[in-house]
């Protein structure tokens, strides 16, 4: 019984520990808002639209963290692709691997995030 209590007490700490804040963005990531272009690792990434944001709000305890899905255009040299990216799920694109590593701001249960308020962090490697 004591083990169960300890495990249940640790779960909220693990969930909170996974969140990034605007004051603590992901190191070595390039950030862009919807419609802005950022260059990361030789690729130019332009977030186009938020397809889905089902992340658990900061002020709520959830059993599932949710996901952020973003449509973005990626250019590298003469190659250009538009794809949907899911937070922390790297995928091959334009001769490398692109990962959306952060999505800001965090969701809060009593507030809707406007498209212009989002910032997305990306990493690209060849």
Automatic annotation (TrEMBL):
Keywords: Signal. The keyword Signal applies. Residues 1-21 form the signal peptide. The keyword Signal applies. This is Lipoprotein.
């Amino acid at each position: 019984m004591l083990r169960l209590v300890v495990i249940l007490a640790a779960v909220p700490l693990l969930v909170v520990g996974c969140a990034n804040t605007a004051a603590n963005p992901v190191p070595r990531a390039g950030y862009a808002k919807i419609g802005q272009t950022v260059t990361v690792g030789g690729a130019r990434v332009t977030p186009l639209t938020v397809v889905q944001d089902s992340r658990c709000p900061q002020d709520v305890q959830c059993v599932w963290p949710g996901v952020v899905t973003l449509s973005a255009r990626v250019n590298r040299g003469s190659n250009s692709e538009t794809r949907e990216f899911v937070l922390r799920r790297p995928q091959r694109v334009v001769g490398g691997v692109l990962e959306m590593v952060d999505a800001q701001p965090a969701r809060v249960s009593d507030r809707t995030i406007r498209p212009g308020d989002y910032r997305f962090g990306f990493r690209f490697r060849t």
